Sequence to fold (402 residues):
Amino acid sequence: MKQTITDINIDNKRVLLRCDFNVPIKNGNVIDNTKIVKSLETINYLITHNAKIIILSHLGRVKTEEDKRTNSLYIIKPILENLLNKKISFASDILSPDTKQMALNLQPGEILLLENTRFLDVPNKLESKLNEEIAQKIAELGEVYIFDAFAVAHRSHTSVVGIPRFLPNAIGFLVAKEVAMLNNLVINPEHPFTVLMGGAKVDDKLPIIESLLPICDHLLLSGGIANSFLNALGLSTGASLKTNDPEIINKLKELMLKYKTKFAFPLDATIERTYDEKPLIKATNNIEADDIIKDIGPKTITKYTNIINNSATIFVNGTMGVYEENEFKNGTIEIFNALKNAKKTTVIGGGDTISALNNLGFKDVFANISSGGGATLEYIAKKSLPGLDAISEEDTVEVLDL
Fold:
Protein backbone atom coordinates (compact mmCIF):
# COMPACT_ATOMS: atom_id res chain seq x y z
CA MET A 1 0.00 0.00 0.00
CA LYS A 2 1.29 3.45 -0.89
CA GLN A 3 2.24 5.79 1.92
CA THR A 4 -0.43 8.46 2.37
CA ILE A 5 -0.21 12.03 3.60
CA THR A 6 -1.30 10.96 7.09
CA ASP A 7 1.65 8.54 7.32
CA ILE A 8 4.38 11.11 6.75
CA ASN A 9 5.66 14.00 8.86
CA ILE A 10 4.70 17.26 7.18
CA ASP A 11 4.59 19.47 10.29
CA ASN A 12 6.33 22.79 9.57
CA LYS A 13 7.90 21.26 6.44
CA ARG A 14 8.20 22.80 3.01
CA VAL A 15 5.89 20.55 1.03
CA LEU A 16 5.94 20.26 -2.75
CA LEU A 17 2.33 19.43 -3.62
CA ARG A 18 1.65 18.19 -7.16
CA CYS A 19 -1.99 19.07 -7.91
CA ASP A 20 -4.06 18.84 -11.06
CA PHE A 21 -5.33 22.31 -11.95
CA ASN A 22 -5.72 21.51 -15.65
CA VAL A 23 -9.18 23.08 -15.75
CA PRO A 24 -11.29 23.97 -18.81
CA ILE A 25 -10.94 27.60 -19.89
CA LYS A 26 -13.15 29.53 -22.30
CA ASN A 27 -12.61 33.12 -23.35
CA GLY A 28 -10.02 33.55 -20.62
CA ASN A 29 -12.26 32.27 -17.82
CA VAL A 30 -12.25 29.01 -15.87
CA ILE A 31 -15.61 27.38 -16.64
CA ASP A 32 -15.36 24.45 -14.22
CA ASN A 33 -13.39 24.55 -10.95
CA THR A 34 -14.11 20.93 -9.91
CA LYS A 35 -10.46 19.91 -9.99
CA ILE A 36 -9.45 22.87 -7.83
CA VAL A 37 -12.16 22.07 -5.28
CA LYS A 38 -11.06 18.43 -5.15
CA SER A 39 -7.56 19.55 -4.08
CA LEU A 40 -8.79 21.49 -1.05
CA GLU A 41 -8.89 18.57 1.41
CA THR A 42 -5.18 17.94 1.01
CA ILE A 43 -4.29 21.66 1.00
CA ASN A 44 -6.31 22.33 4.16
CA TYR A 45 -4.72 19.34 5.89
CA LEU A 46 -1.28 20.78 5.10
CA ILE A 47 -2.35 24.20 6.39
CA THR A 48 -3.56 22.74 9.71
CA HIS A 49 -0.17 21.06 10.10
CA ASN A 50 1.65 24.36 9.55
CA ALA A 51 3.24 23.16 6.33
CA LYS A 52 4.83 25.63 3.95
CA ILE A 53 3.05 24.71 0.73
CA ILE A 54 4.55 24.90 -2.76
CA ILE A 55 2.02 23.88 -5.42
CA LEU A 56 2.91 22.53 -8.86
CA SER A 57 0.52 21.80 -11.72
CA HIS A 58 0.30 21.84 -15.49
CA LEU A 59 -2.36 23.60 -17.54
CA GLY A 60 -3.25 22.94 -21.18
CA ARG A 61 -0.94 22.06 -24.04
CA VAL A 62 2.27 24.07 -24.20
CA LYS A 63 4.26 23.45 -27.36
CA THR A 64 5.42 26.97 -28.23
CA GLU A 65 6.15 30.33 -26.64
CA GLU A 66 2.80 31.51 -28.01
CA ASP A 67 1.01 28.79 -25.99
CA LYS A 68 2.35 30.29 -22.78
CA ARG A 69 0.19 33.38 -23.24
CA THR A 70 -3.04 31.44 -22.79
CA ASN A 71 -1.89 28.76 -20.35
CA SER A 72 -0.42 30.60 -17.40
CA LEU A 73 -1.34 29.04 -14.06
CA TYR A 74 -1.77 32.56 -12.71
CA ILE A 75 -5.44 32.25 -13.69
CA ILE A 76 -5.83 29.73 -10.84
CA LYS A 77 -4.43 32.06 -8.17
CA PRO A 78 -7.55 34.21 -7.47
CA ILE A 79 -9.84 31.16 -7.59
CA LEU A 80 -7.72 29.30 -5.05
CA GLU A 81 -7.41 32.41 -2.89
CA ASN A 82 -11.19 32.75 -2.84
CA LEU A 83 -11.76 29.08 -1.99
CA LEU A 84 -9.20 29.13 0.82
CA ASN A 85 -9.89 32.71 1.93
CA LYS A 86 -6.14 33.14 1.91
CA LYS A 87 -3.54 35.16 -0.01
CA ILE A 88 -1.23 33.12 -2.23
CA SER A 89 2.16 34.00 -3.72
CA PHE A 90 2.96 33.23 -7.35
CA ALA A 91 6.31 32.37 -8.97
CA SER A 92 6.49 32.92 -12.72
CA ASP A 93 9.73 30.98 -13.29
CA ILE A 94 9.99 27.59 -11.59
CA LEU A 95 13.77 27.31 -11.90
CA SER A 96 14.85 30.87 -11.02
CA PRO A 97 16.87 31.76 -7.89
CA ASP A 98 14.07 34.15 -6.90
CA THR A 99 11.57 31.28 -6.82
CA LYS A 100 13.89 29.24 -4.62
CA GLN A 101 14.22 32.16 -2.24
CA MET A 102 10.43 32.58 -2.16
CA ALA A 103 10.12 28.91 -1.20
CA LEU A 104 12.77 29.15 1.51
CA ASN A 105 11.09 32.27 2.95
CA LEU A 106 7.64 30.68 3.29
CA GLN A 107 6.14 30.76 6.76
CA PRO A 108 3.94 27.97 8.24
CA GLY A 109 0.56 27.87 6.48
CA GLU A 110 1.67 30.04 3.56
CA ILE A 111 1.24 28.95 -0.06
CA LEU A 112 3.39 29.51 -3.14
CA LEU A 113 1.87 28.62 -6.51
CA LEU A 114 4.43 27.88 -9.23
CA GLU A 115 3.96 28.59 -12.91
CA ASN A 116 2.69 25.88 -15.28
CA THR A 117 5.14 22.96 -15.21
CA ARG A 118 4.71 22.50 -18.95
CA PHE A 119 6.34 25.87 -19.54
CA LEU A 120 9.51 23.83 -18.94
CA ASP A 121 8.77 21.96 -22.18
CA VAL A 122 9.63 24.98 -24.33
CA PRO A 123 11.99 24.37 -25.99
CA ASN A 124 13.58 21.25 -24.49
CA LYS A 125 10.68 19.20 -23.02
CA LEU A 126 12.18 19.33 -19.53
CA GLU A 127 8.81 18.34 -18.04
CA SER A 128 7.29 15.78 -20.41
CA LYS A 129 10.58 14.00 -21.06
CA LEU A 130 11.61 12.96 -17.56
CA ASN A 131 14.69 14.99 -16.63
CA GLU A 132 16.34 14.00 -13.37
CA GLU A 133 18.56 17.08 -13.20
CA ILE A 134 15.49 19.34 -13.37
CA ALA A 135 13.61 17.08 -10.94
CA GLN A 136 16.43 17.45 -8.41
CA LYS A 137 16.52 21.22 -8.87
CA ILE A 138 12.77 21.51 -8.22
CA ALA A 139 13.03 19.08 -5.30
CA GLU A 140 15.43 21.54 -3.63
CA LEU A 141 12.46 23.86 -3.10
CA GLY A 142 10.87 21.45 -0.64
CA GLU A 143 11.46 18.87 2.07
CA VAL A 144 8.53 16.55 1.33
CA TYR A 145 6.67 15.65 -1.89
CA ILE A 146 2.92 14.90 -1.93
CA PHE A 147 1.33 13.57 -5.12
CA ASP A 148 -2.34 14.52 -5.40
CA ALA A 149 -2.86 14.67 -9.17
CA PHE A 150 -4.39 11.36 -10.16
CA ALA A 151 -5.30 12.60 -13.64
CA VAL A 152 -1.58 12.77 -14.61
CA ALA A 153 -0.47 9.62 -12.80
CA HIS A 154 -0.09 7.90 -16.19
CA ARG A 155 2.53 10.44 -17.28
CA SER A 156 6.24 9.77 -16.69
CA HIS A 157 6.88 13.49 -16.31
CA THR A 158 9.49 15.30 -14.25
CA SER A 159 6.97 16.73 -11.75
CA VAL A 160 5.16 13.38 -11.43
CA VAL A 161 7.86 10.71 -11.43
CA GLY A 162 11.13 12.63 -11.11
CA ILE A 163 10.72 14.74 -7.96
CA PRO A 164 9.66 11.91 -5.58
CA ARG A 165 13.00 10.21 -6.27
CA PHE A 166 14.69 12.95 -4.24
CA LEU A 167 12.29 13.57 -1.33
CA PRO A 168 10.24 11.70 1.28
CA ASN A 169 6.91 11.25 -0.45
CA ALA A 170 3.28 10.15 -0.16
CA ILE A 171 -0.06 10.40 -1.94
CA GLY A 172 -2.69 12.98 -0.99
CA PHE A 173 -6.33 12.42 -0.12
CA LEU A 174 -7.63 12.80 -3.68
CA VAL A 175 -5.31 10.12 -5.07
CA ALA A 176 -5.93 7.78 -2.14
CA LYS A 177 -9.71 8.03 -2.68
CA GLU A 178 -9.41 7.56 -6.44
CA VAL A 179 -7.36 4.38 -6.07
CA ALA A 180 -9.66 2.95 -3.41
CA MET A 181 -12.76 3.68 -5.51
CA LEU A 182 -11.37 2.16 -8.68
CA ASN A 183 -10.07 -0.89 -6.85
CA ASN A 184 -13.48 -1.52 -5.29
CA LEU A 185 -15.73 -0.76 -8.24
CA VAL A 186 -13.91 -1.33 -11.49
CA ILE A 187 -10.81 -3.47 -11.10
CA ASN A 188 -12.99 -6.32 -9.86
CA PRO A 189 -16.38 -5.25 -11.22
CA GLU A 190 -19.65 -7.05 -10.93
CA HIS A 191 -20.66 -8.29 -14.37
CA PRO A 192 -22.06 -7.48 -16.87
CA PHE A 193 -19.43 -4.74 -16.99
CA THR A 194 -20.11 -2.03 -19.60
CA VAL A 195 -17.75 0.71 -20.78
CA LEU A 196 -19.09 3.85 -22.52
CA MET A 197 -16.27 5.62 -24.33
CA GLY A 198 -16.38 8.83 -26.32
CA GLY A 199 -13.64 11.09 -27.56
CA ALA A 200 -12.11 12.66 -30.61
CA LYS A 201 -9.09 10.51 -31.47
CA VAL A 202 -9.12 6.73 -31.47
CA ASP A 203 -5.31 6.78 -31.82
CA ASP A 204 -4.96 8.17 -28.29
CA LYS A 205 -7.23 5.60 -26.67
CA LEU A 206 -6.48 2.52 -28.75
CA PRO A 207 -4.06 0.95 -26.22
CA ILE A 208 -6.66 1.41 -23.48
CA ILE A 209 -9.41 -0.05 -25.65
CA GLU A 210 -7.20 -3.08 -26.27
CA SER A 211 -6.69 -3.52 -22.53
CA LEU A 212 -10.37 -3.07 -21.63
CA LEU A 213 -11.87 -5.41 -24.22
CA PRO A 214 -10.79 -8.63 -22.45
CA ILE A 215 -12.36 -7.55 -19.13
CA CYS A 216 -15.56 -5.77 -20.21
CA ASP A 217 -18.77 -7.30 -21.52
CA HIS A 218 -19.89 -4.34 -23.63
CA LEU A 219 -18.01 -1.42 -25.20
CA LEU A 220 -20.35 1.40 -26.27
CA LEU A 221 -18.68 3.96 -28.52
CA SER A 222 -19.41 7.52 -29.62
CA GLY A 223 -17.68 10.54 -31.13
CA GLY A 224 -14.58 10.34 -33.26
CA ILE A 225 -13.74 6.93 -31.78
CA ALA A 226 -17.02 5.44 -33.03
CA ASN A 227 -16.57 7.17 -36.40
CA SER A 228 -13.17 5.55 -36.83
CA PHE A 229 -14.51 2.06 -36.15
CA LEU A 230 -17.50 2.63 -38.45
CA ASN A 231 -15.16 3.89 -41.16
CA ALA A 232 -13.05 0.75 -40.74
CA LEU A 233 -16.22 -1.27 -41.34
CA GLY A 234 -16.70 0.57 -44.63
CA LEU A 235 -19.70 2.59 -43.44
CA SER A 236 -20.12 6.23 -44.38
CA THR A 237 -19.25 8.82 -41.74
CA GLY A 238 -19.18 11.79 -44.12
CA ALA A 239 -16.77 14.58 -43.19
CA SER A 240 -16.82 13.60 -39.51
CA LEU A 241 -13.72 13.38 -37.38
CA LYS A 242 -12.03 9.98 -37.74
CA THR A 243 -8.65 8.36 -38.27
CA ASN A 244 -7.29 7.80 -41.77
CA ASP A 245 -4.16 5.97 -40.64
CA PRO A 246 -4.08 2.61 -42.51
CA GLU A 247 -2.27 0.85 -39.66
CA ILE A 248 -4.81 2.06 -37.10
CA ILE A 249 -7.71 1.08 -39.36
CA ASN A 250 -6.28 -2.44 -39.74
CA LYS A 251 -5.92 -2.70 -35.97
CA LEU A 252 -9.55 -1.66 -35.50
CA LYS A 253 -10.63 -4.37 -37.92
CA GLU A 254 -8.64 -6.97 -35.98
CA LEU A 255 -10.22 -5.93 -32.69
CA MET A 256 -13.75 -5.97 -34.10
CA LEU A 257 -13.19 -9.46 -35.48
CA LYS A 258 -11.72 -10.77 -32.22
CA TYR A 259 -14.27 -9.14 -29.89
CA LYS A 260 -17.25 -8.79 -32.23
CA THR A 261 -19.82 -9.65 -29.54
CA LYS A 262 -18.63 -6.84 -27.26
CA PHE A 263 -18.78 -3.81 -29.55
CA ALA A 264 -21.84 -1.56 -29.69
CA PHE A 265 -21.88 1.13 -32.39
CA PRO A 266 -24.31 3.98 -33.12
CA LEU A 267 -27.28 3.03 -35.30
CA ASP A 268 -27.96 6.64 -36.24
CA ALA A 269 -26.59 10.11 -35.61
CA THR A 270 -27.53 13.74 -35.31
CA ILE A 271 -25.59 15.49 -38.03
CA GLU A 272 -24.80 18.94 -39.28
CA ARG A 273 -25.45 19.18 -43.00
CA THR A 274 -24.78 22.37 -44.98
CA TYR A 275 -26.66 23.50 -48.04
CA ASP A 276 -25.93 26.95 -49.48
CA GLU A 277 -24.03 27.78 -46.24
CA LYS A 278 -27.19 27.19 -44.20
CA PRO A 279 -26.75 24.35 -41.67
CA LEU A 280 -29.40 21.65 -41.45
CA ILE A 281 -29.55 19.68 -38.22
CA LYS A 282 -31.24 16.29 -38.37
CA ALA A 283 -31.11 12.75 -37.00
CA THR A 284 -30.38 10.20 -39.70
CA ASN A 285 -28.73 6.90 -40.50
CA ASN A 286 -28.04 8.08 -44.05
CA ILE A 287 -24.74 9.92 -43.79
CA GLU A 288 -23.81 11.95 -46.87
CA ALA A 289 -20.34 13.00 -47.97
CA ASP A 290 -20.35 16.46 -46.39
CA ASP A 291 -22.24 15.52 -43.21
CA ILE A 292 -20.57 15.98 -39.83
CA ILE A 293 -21.70 13.63 -37.04
CA LYS A 294 -22.05 15.60 -33.82
CA ASP A 295 -24.28 13.43 -31.58
CA ILE A 296 -25.86 10.01 -31.36
CA GLY A 297 -29.42 9.66 -32.66
CA PRO A 298 -32.63 8.35 -31.03
CA LYS A 299 -32.19 4.73 -32.15
CA THR A 300 -28.72 4.67 -30.64
CA ILE A 301 -30.01 6.19 -27.41
CA THR A 302 -32.55 3.35 -27.12
CA LYS A 303 -29.92 0.72 -27.94
CA TYR A 304 -27.39 2.05 -25.43
CA THR A 305 -30.05 2.54 -22.73
CA ASN A 306 -31.10 -1.12 -23.03
CA ILE A 307 -27.50 -2.25 -22.54
CA ILE A 308 -27.12 0.07 -19.54
CA ASN A 309 -30.28 -1.33 -17.95
CA ASN A 310 -28.90 -4.86 -18.28
CA SER A 311 -25.48 -4.03 -16.82
CA ALA A 312 -24.26 -4.31 -13.23
CA THR A 313 -21.21 -2.03 -13.42
CA ILE A 314 -20.77 0.85 -15.87
CA PHE A 315 -17.72 2.99 -16.54
CA VAL A 316 -18.17 6.22 -18.52
CA ASN A 317 -15.33 8.12 -20.18
CA GLY A 318 -16.44 10.74 -22.68
CA THR A 319 -19.68 12.24 -23.92
CA MET A 320 -22.06 11.14 -26.68
CA GLY A 321 -21.57 14.25 -28.81
CA VAL A 322 -20.64 17.91 -28.97
CA TYR A 323 -22.67 18.66 -25.84
CA GLU A 324 -21.35 22.24 -25.68
CA GLU A 325 -23.59 23.08 -28.67
CA ASN A 326 -27.28 23.18 -27.81
CA GLU A 327 -28.35 21.19 -30.89
CA PHE A 328 -26.05 18.30 -30.03
CA LYS A 329 -26.40 17.82 -26.27
CA ASN A 330 -29.45 15.55 -26.34
CA GLY A 331 -27.58 12.26 -26.65
CA THR A 332 -25.38 12.98 -23.67
CA ILE A 333 -28.35 14.14 -21.57
CA GLU A 334 -30.39 11.05 -22.42
CA ILE A 335 -27.54 8.67 -21.60
CA PHE A 336 -26.87 10.48 -18.30
CA ASN A 337 -30.58 10.12 -17.50
CA ALA A 338 -30.43 6.43 -18.36
CA LEU A 339 -27.47 5.97 -16.03
CA LYS A 340 -29.26 7.87 -13.25
CA ASN A 341 -32.49 5.92 -13.61
CA ALA A 342 -30.78 2.53 -13.92
CA LYS A 343 -29.32 2.91 -10.42
CA LYS A 344 -26.42 0.61 -11.26
CA THR A 345 -22.85 0.93 -10.03
CA THR A 346 -21.59 3.76 -12.21
CA VAL A 347 -18.12 5.31 -12.32
CA ILE A 348 -17.62 8.57 -14.24
CA GLY A 349 -14.10 9.46 -15.38
CA GLY A 350 -12.46 12.24 -17.38
CA GLY A 351 -12.44 16.03 -17.15
CA ASP A 352 -14.66 16.56 -20.19
CA THR A 353 -17.22 14.07 -18.88
CA ILE A 354 -17.29 15.76 -15.48
CA SER A 355 -17.67 19.16 -17.13
CA ALA A 356 -20.64 17.79 -19.09
CA LEU A 357 -22.23 16.51 -15.88
CA ASN A 358 -21.91 19.90 -14.26
CA ASN A 359 -23.10 21.88 -17.28
CA LEU A 360 -26.06 19.66 -18.16
CA GLY A 361 -27.64 19.51 -14.70
CA PHE A 362 -26.16 16.29 -13.33
CA LYS A 363 -23.78 17.73 -10.75
CA ASP A 364 -23.76 15.61 -7.55
CA VAL A 365 -26.02 12.96 -9.16
CA PHE A 366 -23.33 10.26 -9.34
CA ALA A 367 -21.33 9.25 -6.28
CA ASN A 368 -18.33 7.70 -8.02
CA ILE A 369 -16.54 10.37 -10.05
CA SER A 370 -12.90 9.99 -11.02
CA SER A 371 -10.84 13.08 -11.82
CA GLY A 372 -8.76 11.05 -14.26
CA GLY A 373 -9.35 10.51 -17.95
CA GLY A 374 -6.52 8.57 -19.53
CA ALA A 375 -5.12 7.83 -16.09
CA THR A 376 -8.35 6.18 -14.98
CA LEU A 377 -8.56 4.08 -18.12
CA GLU A 378 -4.93 3.03 -17.85
CA TYR A 379 -5.26 2.14 -14.18
CA ILE A 380 -8.30 -0.02 -14.90
CA ALA A 381 -6.42 -1.79 -17.66
CA LYS A 382 -2.97 -2.14 -16.06
CA LYS A 383 -3.69 -1.79 -12.31
CA SER A 384 -0.64 0.46 -11.98
CA LEU A 385 0.56 3.89 -13.12
CA PRO A 386 4.01 5.53 -13.28
CA GLY A 387 2.97 8.31 -10.89
CA LEU A 388 1.82 5.80 -8.30
CA ASP A 389 4.79 3.50 -8.83
CA ALA A 390 7.06 6.46 -8.01
CA ILE A 391 5.57 6.84 -4.54
CA SER A 392 7.06 4.91 -1.64
CA GLU A 393 5.34 1.99 -0.02
CA GLU A 394 4.52 2.31 3.67
CA ASP A 395 7.58 2.10 5.91
CA THR A 396 10.00 2.09 2.97
CA VAL A 397 10.64 5.79 2.40
CA GLU A 398 14.08 6.40 0.94
CA VAL A 399 15.49 9.92 1.15
CA LEU A 400 18.15 10.80 -1.40
CA ASP A 401 20.80 13.42 -0.70
CA LEU A 402 20.42 16.60 -2.70
Observations:
- The domain at 189-363 is CATH 3.40.50.1260 (Rossmann fold).
